[in-house]
Amino acid sequence: MSTGNYPSAGQPEPGTGNHAGVPPAPARTPSPADSTADSALTRPDAPLPAGTGTPVPQPSSAADQPGVTRAGVVWAAVVAALVLLILLIIFILQNQDQVAVRYFGLEGLVPLGMALFIASVTGGVLVAMAGGARILQLRRNAHRARLRQRK
Q1: What is the Cα–Cα distance from 17 to 27, expressed in whole angstroms?
Q2: What is the pLDDT of residue 68?
Q3: Residue 96: CB partners within 8 Å, gap ≥ 6?
Q4: CA 78 remoteness from chain centre
Q5: Are 113 and 95 a contacting pair, CB within 8 Å?
Q6: What does the alpha-carbon distance between residue 98 and residue 111 come to, in Å, rounded to a whole number?
Q7: DSSP states of 2-59
Q8: Which candidate in 6, 28, 42, 112 could, as Cys together with 95 as Cys, close a disulfide (CB 3.0–4.6 Å)?
């Protein structure tokens, strides 16, 4: 039995790219307010939307946007560092309880926040030393490889 213009079950509808047999979503009919707002954004000579006394901002092109500069990156890094420093100061001030610290026979009382800060800085220094040693090793290997290429 023929089903007319409809494909058989499980077959895609011709021309729609719909392979699951699911009918496509109905197209949204724009409201008059949508078309006014859309046309004002896309056409510079279009009238302003009703009820607004300010012009609608035009999208700027990529050429108008400033690029990323070293000064901008440094500024962002300084701001991030200041935020972290403020959070660290708050942490240290909130953890003022005295704790006993023992290290290789030395013993003393230190505020908890300061002890944790010293431990984290010490860990950072150790990681930086290991990273620096690896960078020096890679530079030395690259220098030796350049010397071998010249010969």
Answers
A1: 16
A2: 83
A3: 111, 112, 113
A4: 17
A5: yes
A6: 4
A7: --TTSPPTTPPPTTT---SSPPPPPPPPPPHHHHHHHHHHH-TTSPPPTT--SPPPPP
A8: 112
d(CA 120, CA 132) in angstroms, rounded, equals 18
Assigned token pair, 96: 């003022």
Q: Which of 120, 78, 80, 114 is nearest to 98 (CA)?
A: 114
Task: Give φ, ψ of 126 to 5 degrees.
Answer: -65, -40
How far, in Å, CA of 144 to CA of 136, rounded?
12
Q: Running DSSP on this structure, what letter comes out for residue 63?
A: G
